[in-house]
Amino acid sequence: MDTEKRRVQVVTYGCQMNDHDSDRMVELLEPLGFVGTDDKLSADVIILNTCSVREKADQKLFSELGRLREWRAADPDRILAVGGCVAQGMGNDLLDRCRHLDLVFGTDQLAQLPDMVTRISAHRLRVAATEWRNADEFDFLPIRPQRRMEGTHAYVKIMKGCNKFCTYCIVPYVKGRELFRPAQEIIDEVRMLVENHGICEITLLGQTVTSYNLKNRQPGEPRFAELLLRVAEIEGLHRLRFMTGYPRDVHEDLLEAFRIQPVIQPHIHMPVQSGSDRILKLMNRGYTRAQYTEKMAALRAARPGLSLTSDIIVGFPGETEAEFLETISILEEIRYDSVYSFAYSERPGTRATSFEGSLPEPERRRRLVHLNGVQDAITTSLLAECIGKTSEVLVLGPSARDPLVLRGRTPEHRLVNFIGTAEVGELVQVSIDGAGRHTLKGAQIMIHAA
Ligand code: SF4
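# iron/sulfur cluster complex -> structure
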């Protein structure tokens, strides 16, 4: 068994159609590196595929969800999902009644499952996709108390909405325009999390957090870079991250924040979407390839060793093979740690649906597979370059697969499985002696008193 594989258990209720759908769910997740399992304890994702035809389907579902509370609470990276007919009927009510549930998706959302799982893993959202008309329409749901209470890390939402109007994206229409939380409220929430809940790592969250107060600033409110600096000063906060950045918003004040404040961690998720100027223009991204690469170079100069991750869309309407290869070449130029890659799919209500040159599905998929292969090689090579180095690691807990091995994150947001004796929440030095496809391996460096 490949130790890098993640495991998904699909528990099926009801008819053979559900059995079939359950098999499809496992298949759909395989490209993300999942294998099916019948063992709940080793699963990273559990999906309850429900059926309303049977009597008492709701009660059975809630009983099962109750039994899964401990499983979910044992690892903040796990995902608990409900699909099928009951999910379709109850939608958001399920999420409200069951706070350890991450994902509710209806019978029409099967194809979106990989997107949803990918995004939940990356952004730790809670998702009800029964009422969403669109796979890009993800919301940053309120931080749930149990997530705040667990572990070492918490997300803090700093804004909602988006003003960018990328032509493929529905978010600005369904979430509305940018709305920023007052800085003091954000600072108070972070302080509360650090002081009351032992949180030592915070990720400031929003669609384009770097746009925070960039325009239409209220008197006395800081821009994003200043907000970062103010939050970073909170005593007891060891690590500060943010997600998602917008390339055009990178200005000198953000570079300076990276230069002077080590609590801001050396990792940025900064989506490029395409390496082709023509496609970027069609996407209305607001920057050229050269402007993007210059900004990333400036960030890396401000913080040597900065790791970058990105979102990429392949198969945008009219994208030629040469333009697709420009996207491949920007992966090779930037050398992202990882990318969240998607084959373009039409979102009703967005401008791009009227664009000419729609590519056949198989071609979009071919480009996606090609791109993922290139990125996998880059990721592997970047991780291999860490071997022999020492990294500060924040201990998250025992590894999902071996309770004798600890799991933690480097400042660059890389996962490390390591041998050691540290407690959750401790910052330790780890000597990196191995690398898999997605994680590093190592051993804690023990400090002995003289
Ligand atoms: S920046 Fe573009 S892709 Fe991101 S949420 Fe706004 S419109 Fe959508």
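# post-check
Residues 132-150 have pLDDT under 50 and may be disordered.
The domain at 134-265 is CATH 3.30.750.210 (Transcription Regulator spoIIAA).
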